[in-house]
Amino acid sequence: MRGGFNEDDALPVCCAVVYAPKAGNRKRFPETCVKELATAEEALAGADPAAGFHAARVAGPSRSSEGFRVYYLVEWL
Prior knowledge:
The chain is built from 1 helix and 5 strands, in the order βββαββ. It has one helix spanning 40-46, and strands at residues 13-19, 28-30, 34-37, 53-63, 69-76. The chain has a 5-stranded antiparallel β-sheet with strand order 2-5-4-1-3. The longest helix is centred in the middle third of the chain and has 7 residues, at 40-46.
C-alpha cells in the first residue's frame, strides 16, 4: 500500500493541483479539491503553496465508503 491506496486497485494516476492548506499527513482528497492536469510541468506551474495549492500525482477518482469521489495521494511533486 502506498499513499493510502493499493496499487493493485488499478486506479488511473495523473498529475494535479491539490488544494490542501494543511497538507500534512492527508492521504485522500475530495474531488472538489483536485484539478487534474496533463503533465507534471502544468501541475508545478499551477501550484501556489502559499495559497494552499500543491502539485501532486494522485490516483482516482474512487468512490469512498461514504459515497464521495476521492483522489488518493501518490506523491507530492
